[in-house]
Fold:
Amino acid sequence: MRIEQDMKLDFKDVLLRPKRSTLTSRSEVDISREFVFLHSKRKYHGIPIIAANMDATGTFQMARALAKHQLSVALHKHYGDQELLDFFAEQPESPPMFYSMGITAPDYEKFSRVMKGARGTIQNVCVDVANGYTKAFINFIVKLRTAHPELTIMAGNVVTGEMTEQLILDGVDIVKVGIGPGSVCTTRRMSGVGYPQLSAIIECADAAHGLHGLICADGGCTSPGDLAKAFGAGADFVMLGGMLAGHDECGMDVVEENGVRKMRFYGMSSREAMNKYAGGVADYRASEGKEVLLECRGPVENTLQDILGGVRSACTYVGARRLKELSKRTTFIRVSQQLNEVFGSVG
Structure:
């Protein structure tokens, strides 16, 4: 047993320090990014925000809505073969949409079938597991990269620099960072495992960028300011679940509670998800997610305006004319617990 004494930070623990700026309007800020992925060599241009591959947010409807703003979606993995083929056949190359998969034999068999039928229209894959530290996960990544050198692979989740480096060296273009920070994830409470998300982003981004790889901050964002902090900490992409849940484009049941229409939202390791897709919780494991009811929020358009406007505003406060410059102009100020409580009550 050992104890790390270094301080680790979450989004709530810091604020961005403002700096002098020559910008006169938020409209002058360009929040798009351009990348060339390390392994696939494909080019990316868009706003680097991705809807999470949860069945609430990783929907075809959400993909179509976000594409209008040059945002991406990681589709949930429970669509049928033909549904996926039809969707990818209609999609333009930019912004990229991600086919999502696990690492089981049935996952790979389904992927192989869809890839064969897609005839090159699927170019981006998200390999998603709760624990990115297993040998089976690494072996799967090597197998996938060897079979498909042309694919852009996003994979995770991990929270440490050394594992980020290994994934990039083994063929991952974008490492997904985050264990337990999601609003409907209970991994930290059930297993005691996790890592403060802001520090995880800082450390994994440093490791990835040293190898010319990229990271995607996955989980923990509850406001536009959190996205700004994630980008300021070095995230290349940010993945959102709860912030995009509850909208018309989500694929969730609507219920009425005390005359208010609400939408179900649950983690993909929750009892609800496993009952729906796996016939229940296996007797060797526990649920690591929960279900909540969110008030129906209408079309996602207004939420997107708040998110993108908030990130632009952060850039103007620190003088970043482009999103690429935000991390270079970021100074984080630690805030006290008392101030955190004030923000919480106001928010």
Observations:
- The chain has a mean pLDDT of 90.
